[in-house]
Specification:
single chain; mainly alpha; two-stranded antiparallel sheet; 8 strands; about 5% strand; globular; disordered C terminus
Amino acid sequence: MSQVDSESTGGDKGTKTELVTGMASWWGGFSSSPRGRLISLFTVAVVLLMIPRLIASSYWIRVLDQAGLYIMMALGLNVIVGYAGLMNLGYASFFAIGAYLWAVLASPQHDIHLPFLLIFPLAGLLSGVVAYILAIPALKLKGDYLALVTLGFAESIRILANNASFTNAAAGIINIDHPSLGVFAVASVREYYYVVLVLCAIEILVMRRLENSRIGMAWMAIREDELAAESMGLNTRSLKLLACFIGAIPAGLAGVLFSGMQTFISPVSFKFLESITILSMVVVGGRGNAWGVVMGAFLLTVLPEPLRGTSLDTARILLYGVLLVVMAIFRPEGIWPRRYGGAKREGGQTDVCDTTELS
């Protein structure tokens, strides 16, 4: 009798195991198929488009707007830190360049009101050019010394904004124009949500294509072993300069949107803490993986928000430090790292020399 029960129990377990395995196999095949990816993408797009209608609070819509801006900047910093392996502690300086460019050229401060469609790409280009010029002498340094140069540059930009007359010094600039897309003016937090959502979607698409391109693979080769990359014929200096240029562009674009959304900016918005916050998003999410960076930026923007305005408000800053320490000890690759694997040979063996992405 006990033998029959044992066999019956074993049969049930085997059936459950086969069911779970079959479901996992089905989901893996579904998600990897073009149709499955299209359905998943369509579902996510519908949910994201419906969020402003589902959330009545304008405050939380603004938080999502901020999360979108952080996603844009974190994806840009991921090019520099995650792909090319360059340490940058002054990324907020490029954010400030875009914000002040729009504030100066589209506000009553100097009685200039240039169109958004002109300033927006110009801000991204200017940020990229400044990053490129800064990188020319800075790339001669490595490690901590490179990080100190970027930190010093960011503080220089903040001090300049805090003292220059064209930025209205520490008082900041008020009554900044909202962006205008032809006849469509972006003014409410819900309108900003859709603009930021579209820009994030475009940037994710571009970064994913860049991540899997030959340039992206070359950046990662430099990150892992620059000497070996040079011996393979890669022009490491040019590739690192390109990473700095491309990585700074999203920060300038995000700065324009931030300036227009707030209608007021001051040097307080571009402290060293902003650079650390963006860097934390990249490290916690997963360096080198665009989707991981998106997750890290979203989580580190939304999760600490309930602490704002409470007695534990300062714990928001502590949270970033604790997360960095925990991730460095237990999961240095991040929550959602970029996965590599080898091509399977006959007999089930794996070629570990193949770095084709399997994710």
